[in-house]
Amino acid sequence: MAEKNLTFPKDFHWGTATAAHQIEGGNTNSDWWRLEHTPGGGTAESSGDACDSWNRYEEDIAIVASLGMNAYRFSVEWARIEPAEGEFSKVALDHYRDVLFACRNQGILPVVTMHHFTLPQWVQDAGGFESPNIVSWMARYAGVVGEALGDLIGVACTINEPNIVAITGFLMGMFPPQVQSWDRFSAVNTTMRACHVAIRDALRAGPGSFPIGIALSMQEWEAVDGAEDSVASMREEMEDLYLRAAQEDDFIGVQCYTKMQIGPHGMVPPPPDQMLDMGYYYWPQCVEHTVRRASDVAKVPVIVTENGIGTTNDQQRIEYLEEAISGLHRAISDGVEVHGYFQWSLLDNFEWLHGYRLKFGIVEVDRETFERTPKPSAHWYGELARTGVLKTA
Ligand code: GCO
């Protein structure tokens, strides 16, 4: 096949994404830290010092800039900013201001996520997403963050994968608080949408003017052996309720990694030769599929806030990204309004229950010295970001 150059829009945001708990280190006041230190809690290891990005953020952002990207997505950590109820840390807010300055100084658009999986321990102790106060706590937290940082924020994501927090925490019993109940899962999804609106409105009321949206986990769903009804109800609860609510937002953040097959007895594992370390189906086509669907239902612009692959084979990462981003280009060519793409992740980092074994990064991090080494995929992706042209074979 002849080589083809796929050109992306001029003002496209090309970035990479991270999350506080996964890279900063020492997030000791969060519910996840506690889970990691609870015997039988289910995590492979402690997040520990993570990638020490609390101290090395300037180096991280310099890598983003030097590779050729123009945007960086990261999260601010509620457990650090409000370590006890109503007690806000000036030091933590100043720290994140410095992170935002570091982005701005290097010409990088900062995309800030307000909540990425973790809660302060005091929130979890008081009922977490099932507390009657969660919406007002989120609103107050977002108000304080907006006041302190809003003038520097480029794009804001309110909640990262609220549907994953709900399903893993309240239906599958894996993430805190490890509950297994469809009703509680569904109720938490409803609460999540209220939290999203509260955060969005608090940010809109504060300084700065920037697009605000939710970052939703999406799948390419496939019914196996007549499980169409299960797929339909799962997709409604996991995606469509959120997508319809996003019609009031400035954009919809789409995060996708794989295809999910559902049969009469639940999830069907992928064929062994297509199964990745994470248990995911190797399915880069999911980007095109989910972006089109998000746009159809939400009817607002799309940002791919996360897409990537956990693999120790960096050549496989390049192939996956090439196919995923080609699909994205097809959607854009057909008129879907997409404003950016954020590869997950900049660094090999703490992959939640799996710990550090899974490698989603385009940059390797030495677990002893924290030295960062860009992989071939980092240079490949950087060239795409710098030129806005995807060269396909
Ligand atoms: C997620 C997260 C990331 C994960 C990534 C890979 O949204 O699940 O945003 O924290 O690390 O998805 O599993």
Could you explain the architecture of this structure?
The chain has 13 helices and 15 strands. With 393 residues, it is an alpha/beta fold. The protein has a single domain (4-392), classed as Glycosidases (TIM Barrel). The strands form four sheets. An eight-stranded parallel barrel has the order 2-3-4-5-6-8-11-12, surrounded by seven helices. It has a three-stranded mixed β-sheet with strand order 7-9-10. The longest helix has 24 residues, at 182-205. D-gluconic acid binds at residues 19, 22, 160-161, 164, 255, 306, 344, 351, 360.
Distance between the termini: 7 Å
Given this structure, which CATH class is correct? Alpha Beta
Main structural class: alpha/beta
Instruction: Give the CATH superfamily.
Output: Glycosidases
Main sheet overview:
8 strands, parallel, barrel
Topology:
Elements (H helix, E strand, L loop, with lengths): L3 E4 L5 E5 L2 H4 L7 H6 L16 H15 L3 E5 L2 H4 L8 H16 L3 E7 L5 H5 L8 H16 L5 E6 L1 H10 L10 H24 L6 E6 L2 E4 L4 H18 L5 E5 L3 E5 L2 E3 L17 H13 L3 E6 L6 H20 L4 E7 L18 E3 L6 E3 L1 H12 L1 E4 L1
This protein binds D-gluconic acid.
D-gluconic acid binds next to loops.
